[in-house]
Each structure stands twice: as structure tokens, then as C-alpha cells.
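Researcher: We plan to redesign the surface later, but first we want a full-length starting point. C-alpha cells attached.
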């Protein structure tokens, strides 16, 4: 029984890390796509190509990875009884922030498809620092568990 439980935990953790990697890869790629997309004139064939690429990235990589990483992460938390621990609360706050960033990116893609260009290329490049910093803090919290 003990063996089954520890194998379940390890498989959940392996799956969790795989889908977190997919999710983070998508979060890094999408604002890069936006930078190139914004260089295309609204209504041009190139613009239509970028809209299609962004929607595919959201539909095939970003949304499914977000959902699976969350489900496996919550199952892991239940399996190790993490809900009362400080490091987990801090991690949850950061992951909720990343999830809000994801939703905001999806909204920006919709606005771009309508021809709106709300941010400059430089601002979009700077946005790419957000998932990097959040991921570093999350990994420290989950490995070091400082509190
Ligand atoms: C989506 C919501 C998430 C939840 C609910 C969640 C929850 C968890 C839990 C409970 C563990 C097990 C920790 C342990 O066994 O000590 C874990 C492991 C891990 N998580 Fe998450 N996580 C989430 C998202 C993320 C994100 C976004 C990242 C990185 C950017 C991440 C990186 C990791 C890593 C690297 C581990 C393995 C740590 C180890 O080796 O023990 N997680 N996660």
C-alpha cells in the first residue's frame, strides 16, 4: 500500500512538472508572437497568419497545460497535505498571479485580432520578465520550502 501511494505521488509530480514546462513555454512564446504580430498591418494576410498562430498556441498548448498543471498540482497538494503550509500559500499566490497573466494574454490576443495594438514592442518584451521571475520564485518555494 505504501509503495502504491509513493508511486502515485511520483507519477503525479512527474506529470505536474511536464505540464508546468509546457505552460511556461507557451507563456514565454505568446508575447514574442505579439511583438512580430504587431509589425504586420491590421487586415493584411500576415496579420491573419499571426492571429491563427496565437489562437493555436492558446488552444493546443496554453489552456490544456494550465488546466492539467493545476489539476495535478492540487492532487499533489492533497496527497502531501500541503494546504495548511506557508510555502504552499505563497506558491498558490504566485501561481494565481501567473494564471491572471495567462488570462490577460488571451485577452490581448483577442484585442490584437480586432486590430488593436495597446502596448509597444518594448513593453511586450519587458512583460516576458514576469513568468521568468515568478517561475524562479515558485521553484525556490517548492524545493527549499523556506516557511
Ligand atoms: C498550477 C498550480 C500549481 C499547484 C496547485 C502546484 C502544487 C504543487 C505541489 C503540491 C507540489 C508537491 C511539492 C512536494 O512534494 O514537496 C508541486 C511540485 C512542484 N511544482 Fe507545482 N504547483 C502548481 C504550479 C507550478 C508552477 C507554475 C511551477 C513552476 C513554474 C511549479 C513547479 C513545481 C516543481 C518544480 C515541483 C517539484 C518539486 C519537488 O521536487 O519536490 N508548480 N507543485
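Model: Full-length starting sequence:
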Amino acid at each position: 500500500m505504501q509503495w502504491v501511494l509513493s508511486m502515485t505521488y511520483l507519477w503525479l509530480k512527474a506529470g505536474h512538472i511536464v505540464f508546468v514546462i509546457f505552460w511556461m513555454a507557451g507563456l514565454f512564446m505568446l508575447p514574442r508572437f505579439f511583438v512580430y504580430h504587431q509589425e504586420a498591418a491590421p487586415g493584411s494576410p500576415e496579420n491573419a497568419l499571426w492571429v491563427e498562430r496565437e489562437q493555436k498556441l492558446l488552444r493546443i498548448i496554453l489552456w490544456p497545460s494550465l488546466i492539467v498543471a493545476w489539476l495535478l498540482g492540487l492532487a499533489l497538494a492533497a496527497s502531501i497535505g500541503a494546504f495548511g503550509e506557508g510555502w504552499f500559500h505563497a506558491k498558490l499566490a504566485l501561481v494565481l498571479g501567473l494564471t491572471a497573466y495567462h488570462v490577460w494574454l488571451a485577452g490581448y490576443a483577442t484585442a490584437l485580432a480586432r486590430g488593436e495594438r495597446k502596448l509597444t514592442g518594448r513593453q511586450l518584451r519587458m512583460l516576458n520578465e514576469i513568468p521568468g521571475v515568478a517561475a524562479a520564485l515558485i521553484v525556490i518555494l517548492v524545493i527549499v520550502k523556506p516557511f
